[in-house]
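User: Need the bound-state model for S-(P-nitrobenzyl)glutathione:
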Amino acid sequence: MTITITAFERSPDGGKGLARDTRVRWALEEVGQPYEVRLVSFLAMKEPAHLALHPFGQIPTYEEGDLALFETGSIVFHIAERHAGLLPHDANARARAITWMFSALNTVEPPILELATTRLLESNKSWYPERLPLVEDRVRCRLNQLSARLGNADWLDGAFSAGDLMMVSVLLRLKSSGILNEFPNLAAYVARGEARAAYKRAFAAQLAVNAGRPPTG
Ligand code: GTB
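Assistant: Bound-state model below.
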């Protein structure tokens, strides 16, 4: 059955791979599943046809036969459950890998998003110089804890899993901030993710859509 995902017609990041279709492309590449991409504009995302797939009018979505999914956590979990390569067979190791997926999305991503939003939307506010360091420190707090847990390991719990895919995807958003480099083992962890052949294919595929198109917004 053909898998179709949606992605920005034109990503605001100009092809840096930070939009969330990249993590879905990466998961599909890791498990060797071909997929098609339907590009959608910001306007089309808010129209009924897309809202029927994604109630919040966002990308990415995932369609496969009768199944339509939204939310990258759910989509990557679905891919990892249906195809070998992203979740261990051992039941406990599998549960732990899934736990890392949730923690990437629920515990590590929120302060990183808060930082991105602060920088993007609040830099003209009088209180920005006071707020920014507070928000940065919330990110540092999480990275400090994650860094301590990762230690010298290559991946969070044994072999590379969907938990690492999600955690690296979340941390990638920090690359331009300089904060990631304060934690050399996390910077190396992200670089290991980026060095995977499947990630490179996913990145190249999104870049092919956005190359030569200046960032918007
Ligand atoms: N929780 C959802 C998920 O994980 O699937 C979040 C989905 C989401 O935020 N989608 C964004 C979207 O569709 C695109 S990825 N936004 C349009 C809208 O809400 O109207 C977020 C994103 C966008 C742009 C950059 N960038 O330019 O760097 C990075 C990340």
